[in-house]
Fold this sequence. Notes:
Elements (H helix, E strand, L loop, with lengths): L1 E2 L2 E2 L9 H6 L3 E8 L3 H11 L3 H8 L6 E5 L2 E12 L4 E11 L3 E6 L7 H8 L9 H34 L6 H32 L12 H64 L11 H24 L4
Helix pairs in contact: 4-5, 5-6, 5-7, 6-7, 7-8
Amino acid sequence: MYRDGVLQKEDFPVEDVPEFLAAPGTTVWVDLCEPAEAELARLAGELGLHRLAVEDAVAEHQRPKLDRYDGHAFLAAYAVRFDAGTGRVTTAEFGAFVTPRALVTVRKDDGFDIEPVVRAWDEAPELAKSGVPFLLHGLLDHVVDGHYEAVQALDDEVEALEDLVFEDRPDSSELQRRSFRLRKSLTALRRVVLPMREVISSLMRPELELADELTRPYFEDVHDHARQAAEQTEALRELIATVRETQLNLQGNRLNLIMKKVTGWAAVIAVPTAVTGFYGQNVPYPGNGAPSGFWTSTVVVLVLSLGLYGVFKKKDWL
């Protein structure tokens, strides 16, 4: 609980919220992690929260959004974490009720660590006098920074994938596994990152009064980071598709090169096969039964084979 921009009390029961809000100049933040339905319903009744917003806070797999109701707004978003070991993106869904003097965060599970948000609030006491906009900015700034960090980590993974594609002897199965895993992670990230541009842009509208003059530049900075994360996510999506297409093209080129060499060597080998087959016929021929016939065929085989090898090498067929 903040009073006139100064932190006054922490770790109090939810039942004390109406008493705090009755005093002028107070701002309250309430965090609920996997709340019971009765607990959330009681708090909703005390703060006048809309029934549809309460249903959205309890329901899972909501799209990131900002809904406006009479006297308050409801925010749905996702915190993101990238696991470098598995290459997977994990998301943690949460909702937030934004009232003129209270911010209520509802976390669906403990996957979203709220402690960094609290530390960010403690490190910016000069903004605390803004009340709820100060709390909302700290929350969104942490969430969007997590989005941006995950995008940067995926960018590094894609660069490593590019290096793997152009190795002399790339492991095709490993390339396919990594590219599929990255595309899956990027799809999950894109689903929660792209809508955040619209969410932050909406809450900055003057008629909503969710960002005051003091915090507006900070919200604009968060919006800029959200836009960068969204644009880079789209660029990575195209880049992964390009990497996959390049891999297939390189595989096709390597196959064509192998076939060209095999065909060239087959032509070289066909010459001695034809000569020795001709001399193996069961009718008399020049040099038949004499050493000169053997040496003549040997010379013909060598000359023609070396001649073909030279021609193919000059044409870069071998």
